[in-house]
């Protein structure tokens, strides 16, 4: 089968969206310009499983321009945009994805993507890699390696590595500085609020926001909440992160205590059941619940369903859960990562950095090939640096260079 999408006629709308973001992704444009000449992916099949929206499409088209045969699918049921899928197909990328598939359809789309027998996999959350280590182990034999986009996917890869079961090398793109410092922190910080504000049409200023998890995403979400005028409470399990949150000026307390105080709750942990029955029992009438972590497991949907007598979609992407005592809790985007399920995802300039890392890291895996053992590898520091340099160059910003004397001083143990 060539492709499986909702409606090929949607491609003109998708093409416009891709053109808009591409015009704001100068780093990837510079990489594309170079790769169009050198065609490092000529004859290479690349399977892409990332939120299938405009910025991802730009990555897919860059890889294609670099010679790859690209096949793409979505990494989350609610983040696929059907017009983008159509535009990609019109540009010669094979796509197996549509918005809001059933769990069976979602899995089938992943399976069809892998049945094209890719040489490289670019995964976001670890679903492709999981299939390659279970149902489709035969396909894994032809996989040279790949890259992983997000924290949760890397946790899953590390678990495979620990058990000695990882079948091919994977580069942890998420752990590059040019990724988490900007994508996880500022990207999530901005896009989560953009999504919550447009989905609810409610004010943030003056509200109490509870952020669960003070990792890179939680830091960005907390920072931007404060900028919007909210009082921010942080809940953590890591004492170091908790100290950091206090020193950054936020209130820190256990989530059960915060449950009674919050107007808006946002989970950014990568963990499960962070907000559950005992929290819902404490919450105020009208509390908003949103998740920004990769999977829809951070807010217990099972507990919400059990505690409620009725559910209703009261506005697009807002489900009201009516509790027995009359309180209402509002869940945004079905508890899936709110910035993509109920918004446009990270800003284009942010994904420019992440996807530039992806393109360069994929080339690195291909070039190093079998030399790389089947482990989780860091992004080489030269690639991180190259992306930063390209970003500065696109802004026209120059920075200082060390003098030879300074270099010698920094490399010496003797001091003055
Ligand atoms: N929405 C997006 O666009 C987006 C972007 C990047 C990452 N992510 C996802 O967001 C999640 C977090 O990513 P990150 O990079 O911030 O990870 P991180 O590891 O930097 O931070 C996670 C934090 O959550 C804390 N935590 C874990 N379990 C907890 C619990 N039960 N209660 C309170 N705190 C807990 C950890 O101590 C840690 O500080 C991951 O699932 C990641 O894949 C989403």
Automatic annotation (TrEMBL):
<keyword id="KW-0963">Cytoplasm</keyword>
<keyword id="KW-0520">NAD</keyword>
<feature type="binding site">
    <location>
        <position position="339"/>
    </location>
    <ligand>
        <name>NAD(+)</name>
    </ligand>
</feature>
<protein>
    <recommendedName>
        <fullName>Adenosylhomocysteinase</fullName>
        <ecNumber>3.13.2.1</ecNumber>
    </recommendedName>
</protein>
<dbReference type="GO" id="GO:0033353">
    <property type="term" value="P:S-adenosylmethionine cycle"/>
</dbReference>
<feature type="binding site">
    <location>
        <begin position="213"/>
        <end position="218"/>
    </location>
    <ligand>
        <name>NAD(+)</name>
    </ligand>
</feature>
<dbReference type="InterPro" id="IPR015878">
    <property type="entry name" value="Ado_hCys_hydrolase_NAD-bd"/>
</dbReference>
<dbReference type="Pfam" id="PF00670">
    <property type="entry name" value="AdoHcyase_NAD"/>
</dbReference>
<feature type="binding site">
    <location>
        <position position="346"/>
    </location>
    <ligand>
        <name>NAD(+)</name>
    </ligand>
</feature>
<dbReference type="GO" id="GO:0006730">
    <property type="term" value="P:one-carbon metabolic process"/>
</dbReference>
<feature type="binding site">
    <location>
        <position position="124"/>
    </location>
    <ligand>
        <name>substrate</name>
    </ligand>
</feature>
<comment type="pathway">
    <text>Amino-acid biosynthesis; L-homocysteine biosynthesis; L-homocysteine from S-adenosyl-L-homocysteine: step 1/1.</text>
</comment>
<comment type="function">
    <text>May play a key role in the regulation of the intracellular concentration of adenosylhomocysteine.</text>
</comment>
<feature type="binding site">
    <location>
        <position position="179"/>
    </location>
    <ligand>
        <name>substrate</name>
    </ligand>
</feature>
<dbReference type="GO" id="GO:0004013">
    <property type="term" value="F:adenosylhomocysteinase activity"/>
</dbReference>
<dbReference type="GO" id="GO:0071269">
    <property type="term" value="P:L-homocysteine biosynthetic process"/>
</dbReference>
<comment type="similarity">
    <text>Belongs to the adenosylhomocysteinase family.</text>
</comment>
<dbReference type="InterPro" id="IPR020082">
    <property type="entry name" value="S-Ado-L-homoCys_hydrolase_CS"/>
</dbReference>
<dbReference type="InterPro" id="IPR000043">
    <property type="entry name" value="Adenosylhomocysteinase-like"/>
</dbReference>
<dbReference type="Pfam" id="PF05221">
    <property type="entry name" value="AdoHcyase"/>
</dbReference>
<feature type="binding site">
    <location>
        <position position="184"/>
    </location>
    <ligand>
        <name>NAD(+)</name>
    </ligand>
</feature>
<feature type="binding site">
    <location>
        <position position="149"/>
    </location>
    <ligand>
        <name>substrate</name>
    </ligand>
</feature>
<keyword id="KW-0378">Hydrolase</keyword>
<feature type="domain" description="S-adenosyl-L-homocysteine hydrolase NAD binding">
    <location>
        <begin position="184"/>
        <end position="345"/>
    </location>
</feature>
<feature type="binding site">
    <location>
        <begin position="215"/>
        <end position="220"/>
    </location>
    <ligand>
        <name>NAD(+)</name>
    </ligand>
</feature>
<dbReference type="InterPro" id="IPR036291">
    <property type="entry name" value="NAD(P)-bd_dom_sf"/>
</dbReference>
<feature type="binding site">
    <location>
        <position position="183"/>
    </location>
    <ligand>
        <name>substrate</name>
    </ligand>
</feature>
<keyword id="KW-0554">One-carbon metabolism</keyword>
<feature type="binding site">
    <location>
        <begin position="292"/>
        <end position="294"/>
    </location>
    <ligand>
        <name>NAD(+)</name>
    </ligand>
</feature>
<dbReference type="InterPro" id="IPR042172">
    <property type="entry name" value="Adenosylhomocyst_ase-like_sf"/>
</dbReference>
<feature type="binding site">
    <location>
        <position position="236"/>
    </location>
    <ligand>
        <name>NAD(+)</name>
    </ligand>
</feature>
<dbReference type="GO" id="GO:0005829">
    <property type="term" value="C:cytosol"/>
</dbReference>
<feature type="binding site">
    <location>
        <begin position="150"/>
        <end position="152"/>
    </location>
    <ligand>
        <name>NAD(+)</name>
    </ligand>
</feature>
